[in-house]
Design brief:
Blueprint: E1 15-17, E2 33-37, E3 46-52, E4 60-66, E5 75-83, H1 86-102, E6 105-111, E7 123-128, E8 131-142, E9 146-152, E10 180-184, E11 199-203, E12 211-216, E13 223-228, E14 234-237, E15 249-250, E16 255-259, H2 270-274, E17 279-285, E18 288-301, E19 304-314, E20 330-333, E21 339-340, E22 352-358, E23 369-373, E24 386-392, E25 398-403, E26 428-434, E27 437-445, E28 449-452, H3 454-461, E29 469-476, E30 479-486
Parallel strand pairs: 1-7, 3-5
Antiparallel strand pairs: 2-6, 3-4, 6-9, 7-8, 8-9, 10-11, 11-21, 12-13, 12-22, 14-16, 14-20, 15-19, 16-19, 17-18, 17-20, 18-19, 22-23, 24-25, 25-28, 26-27, 26-29, 29-30
Length: 488
């Protein structure tokens, strides 16, 4: 069985070797002993160590050793998961750097079998060409002779004094505050999450690492429901946002946003914008969120941004555009920090009491923010129909027609010949309007058209009016979707 033997470095030489003790070189070798030396450019000028400080709650500790008058600029950095006092780490780093430089010289030679007492790690003193130097034996291969590889060493580098003491730095406690929290009933943002799920975002400075979402059907008995791993990016409107056009760029309006905490916006190209970049949710009314995008971002003050080249009412949220959206309204950046809540479809419409706070605290901790939120399944709501028309037909009838839209994320594809229906069946409700009064409701239409006869118009208006105002809803799993309306 082999034996592992640990010996201290910096020991004195156990023997002195001169040229007379060496085995004569074999044919083809010019010297009985050969020395090799590494180039200076291969060695570090600076050695940096990163460890743990036992005096400062195991915070990071960095020490550095350097050589001044050497012809190299190489820096070597090493990291060790070891708790070590700073003064000893400083000394050990200096010693390690000197070991590299002293050990740059290696020797190879052979000794007769009579030198059997030598073992690896032994230190010998070699006298050669008028120089006497200590070498530590690194490798021994026994045969007719003992072929030895050795590395230069110097006992003086193991007696270096400790580095200067570093008084421990008092640990400043981190003070956390309650988070900023938003629950958002939004259209489906990604195919990774079912359409019916709402979203949540939270922000705190400093961030907790993660925030836990608690839920209860009453005012007590909270259970951990979900986890928010990333801090959300919040802001508030610094000026009211008027309504604007949809399905094309809103070049007249600008979104002035005061960022909560830190963070920045960036401009993007139109191609990036149309691919979904720079999406925001703006709360136009309590619990009502318009999804919009911006192409140009300009910092105009400390934490205040002017966002222009807007695309309004994205993902079917044109019905959520404020008139106007008031100053102080919340803004949430729709990025990976906005987390879909794992709510089942059967839980849509059920009121819950929620709390959000640090993940390492309980549901009763005062840092938790409490709120009430009832998921409405906005992602299952059909989008409003478009291109509503009222066309006179031979015989005096009117053809009311429209084009449906799909809430399916594949609806933006240019490859599909027809957008996916996105619902269990195609169905519409239609309302004939006279001002704000609904004169007639037609339900259960299975195609995007309706013949409004002259007889119906006489019954509704008292005369066969030549044109009418109407609105239409596509029907989804939760009932009517957003309305599309043809004005008079």
């Amino acid at each position: 069985q082999g034996v592992l033997r640990f010996v201290p470095r910096g020991r004195a030489a156990v023997a002195e070797i001169t040229a007379e003790e060496l085995v004569v070189a074999e044919a083809g070798q010019s010297e009985d002993i050969t020395f090799t030396r590494a180039q200076e450019t291969e060695l570090p000028r600076v050695l940096k160590w990163r460890l743990l400080s036992p005096d400062e709650a195991y915070d990071a500790l960095t020490v550095e050793a350097r050589r001044i008058t050497v012809d190299t600029a190489r820096i070597r950095a090493e990291q060790f998961p070891i708790a070590h006092p700073a003064e000893l780490a400083d000394r050990n780093a200096r010693r390690a750097l000197l070991e590299d430089w002293v050990g740059r010289e290696e020797a190879a030679f052979a000794l007769p079998p009579s030198w059997l007492a030598l073992d690896p790690t032994d230190v010998v003193r070699i006298a050669h060409d008028g120089r006497v130097q200590d070498f530590a034996l690194v490798r021994i291969a026994d045969g007719e002779a003992r072929r030895i590889e050795a590395r230069r060493t110097d006992a003086s580098i193991y007696g270096l004094p400790s580095g200067p003491a570093r008084p421990p730095v008092a640990d400043t406690p981190t003070v956390y505050g309650p988070p900023e929290v938003a629950f958002l009933d939004l259209p489906q943002l990604s195919e990774d999450a079912p359409a019916h799920r709402p979203y949540a975002a939270a922000f705190a400075a400093p961030w907790y690492g993660s925030a836990v979402v608690w839920r209860s059907a009453t005012l007590d008995g909270f259970e951990a429901f979900d986890l928010l791993d990333q801090p959300g990016r919040f802001g508030t409107l610094a000026a009211a946002l008027p309504p604007g056009p949809v399905w094309r760029f809103d070049k007249a309006n600008a979104l002035l946003v005061d960022v909560v905490g830190s963070g920045a916006f960036a401009s993007v190209t139109d191609d990036q914008l149309l691919a979904g970049a720079n999406a925001l949710a703006v709360e136009s009314a309590p619990g009502i969120w318009e999804v919009l995008q911006f192409g140009t971002a300009e910092l105009i003050g400390t934490g205040r941004w002017r966002l222009t080249r807007l695309l309004r009412g994205q993902l079917g949220t044109e019905d959520a555009i404020g008139s106007p959206t008031p100053i102080g309204a919340r803004v949430v950046v729709l990025d990976a920090s906005v987390t879909p809540l794992a709510i089942g479809e059967a839980e849509i419409g059920l009121p819950w009491t929620w709390r959000v706070g640090p993940a390492d605290r309980g549901a009763g901790d005062p840092l938790n923010v409490g709120l009430s939120f009832t998921p409405a399944g906005r992602g299952l709501r059909p989008w409003s129909p478009v291109q509503l028309k009222c066309l006179a037909q031979p015989g005096g009838d009117l053809l009311l027609s429209w084009i449906r839209r799909t809430r399916a994320l594949s609806g933006d594809s240019w490859v599909l010949s027809e957008a996916a229906l996105g619902e269990a069946a195609e169905s519409y409700d239609l309302e004939i309007l006279n001002g704000a009064t609904v004169l007639r409701t037609v339900s259960g239409l299975t195609s995007p058209a309706f013949i409004y006869t002259a007889t119906m118009r006489i019954a509704d208006f008292g005369a066969p009016v030549p044109a009418v105002r109407f609105r239409v809803f596509q029907i989804g799993a939760l009932g009517r979707g957003a309305a599309g309306e043809l004005p008079a």
